[in-house]
Design brief:
The protein is mostly helical. Helix content is 51%, strand content 0%.
């Protein structure tokens, strides 16, 4: 079975971003919980971000990007990002 033609769209470049420390500070400040309890989860999300940054232009790369994005969506519902939330700069 032949595949339909696809338009190739170049990937957006994503710079290295330190967001684990601001996230840990947010957990301690807002939720008043020990951020060390979330080390494993933060490292998993950090690893997913690194994997997403190196994703290839194929189905596996697409799946990696979609998985990371779905985790960000879930995180966004629980943790505010911005002036009153996690203060990090994405470039």
């Amino acid at each position: 079975m032949s595949r339909p033609p696809c338009i190739e769209i170049p990937f957006k470049k994503s710079a290295e971003t330190e967001w684990v420390r601001p996230l840990r500070q947010y957990i301690a400040r807002v939720h008043q919980e020990d951020p060390d309890e979330y080390n494993s989860d933060c490292q998993i999300l950090q690893r997913m971000r690194q994997d997403m940054r190196g994703a290839k232009a194929d189905e596996t790369g697409r799946d990696i990007i979609f998985r990371y994005y779905s985790h960000l969506e879930a995180l966004e519902r629980r943790i505010r990002v911005g002036e009153h939330g996690v203060k990090t700069v994405f470039q």
